[in-house]
């Protein structure tokens, strides 16, 4: 009887794991070559002003098409000429002037009525002019399809993170990309998801109680949540407004001492100056109780 129950329990555990795995699987989507790393180019070379055919022969699961047989589209490797890729060795440049388009294949067709999230990075080069990147969804690799997003102006020589949510209105198999008609856009690291964005959006949460008594629990005062941030500086002040701690590394936390001596119980104040991944600079103020 015991073995039978044990077998049942194992079956339930396996079935639960299988169902959870399946749920995660069907809630996941992948843009197969969203980082442009799957290609036949040689690192250290730049492939500039390619035709559609030339580009398509170089890059897997990614298709260039446009209004003319000669497209101003680049496959650019990590080098000093145009700066580093956002991640990895490769990124793509698109000209809006000649109507260039790129289709990025996804693992499974989108489901009509389902909500999807996309993140990607774009930028421009100073002598190419600023532009904006427009995203569509399509059932064909040579058709832009339906527009679902238009970003703001690109930054010169600096990657900018874009993120948006859309509802699928067709069973699209491709995420399509183009630049508007004002200049060139560099694009990299496309990611698609049904559940969460592929990056942590900015979020900060601070505790209101701190107990530095060396019991292994809550012995350091630091953010409970600090996500989607580029940098941060934390200052701790006592009730008279004197600075008793400061650090640019919020993961370390304050141990409740000043000049190597424990401070007394009571109310203290914090000021956190942080910069998000979207380059927004903010200051968060608050107070907390210290108990030993």
Describe the protein's topology.
Blueprint: H1 2-26, E1 46-50, H2 52-58, E2 62-65, E3 73-77, E4 90-95, E5 101-105, E6 115-123, E7 133-138, E8 146-150, E9 160-167, E10 174-179, E11 184-193, E12 203-205, E13 209-210, E14 225-227, E15 229-237, E16 243-247, E17 257-258, E18 261-262, E19 266-276, E20 281-290
Plain-language structure description:
With 292 residues, this protein is mainly beta. The protein is 11% helix and 40% strand. It folds into 2 domains: 28-193, Galactose-binding domain-like (Jelly Rolls); 203-290, Immunoglobulin-like. The chain has helices at 2-26, 52-58, and strands at residues 46-50, 62-65, 73-77, 90-95, 101-105, 115-123, 133-138, 146-150, 160-167, 174-179, 184-193, 203-205, 209-210, 225-227, 229-237, 243-247, 257-258, 261-262, 266-276, 281-290. It has a 6-stranded antiparallel β-sheet. Strand 17 (257-258) and strand 18 (261-262) form a beta hairpin. The longest helix is centred in the first third of the chain and has 25 residues, at 2-26. It is elongated and about 70 Å long. The termini are far apart.
């Amino acid at each position: 009887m015991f073995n039978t129950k044990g077998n049942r329990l194992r079956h339930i555990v396996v079935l639960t794991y299988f169902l959870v795995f399946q749920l995660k699987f069907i809630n996941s989507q992948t843009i197969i070559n969203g980082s442009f790393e799957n290609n036949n180019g040689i690192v250290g070379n730049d492939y500039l002003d390619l035709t559609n055919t030339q580009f398509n022969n170089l890059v897997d699961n990614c298709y260039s098409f446009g209004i003319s047989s000669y497209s101003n589209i680049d496959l650019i490797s990590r080098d000093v000429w145009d700066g580093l890729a956002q991640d990895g060795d490769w990124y793509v440049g698109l000209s809006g002037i000649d109507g260039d388009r790129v289709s990025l294949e996804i693992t499974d067709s989108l489901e009509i009525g389902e909500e999807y999230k996309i993140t990607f990075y774009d930028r421009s080069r100073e002598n190419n002019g600023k532009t904006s990147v427009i995203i569509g969804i399509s059932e064909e690799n040579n058709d832009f399809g339906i527009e679902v997003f238009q970003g703001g102006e690109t930054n010169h020589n600096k990657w900018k993170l874009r993120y948006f949510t859309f509802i699928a209105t067709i069973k699209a198999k491709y995420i399509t990309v183009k630049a508007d008609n004002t200049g060139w856009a560099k694009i990299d690291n496309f990611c698609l998801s049904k559940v969460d964005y592929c990056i942590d959006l900015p979020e900060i949460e601070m505790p209101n109680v701190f107990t530095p008594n060396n019991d292994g629990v809550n012995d350091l005062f630091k953010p409970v949540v600090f996500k989607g941030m580029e940098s941060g500086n934390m200052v701790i002040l006592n009730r008279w407004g004197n600075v008793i701690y400061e650090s640019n590394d919020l993961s370390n936390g304050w141990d409740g001492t000043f000049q190597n001596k424990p401070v007394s119980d009571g109310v203290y104040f914090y000021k956190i100056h942080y910069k998000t991944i979207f380059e927004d600079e903010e200051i968060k103020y608050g107070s907390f109780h210290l108990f030993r």
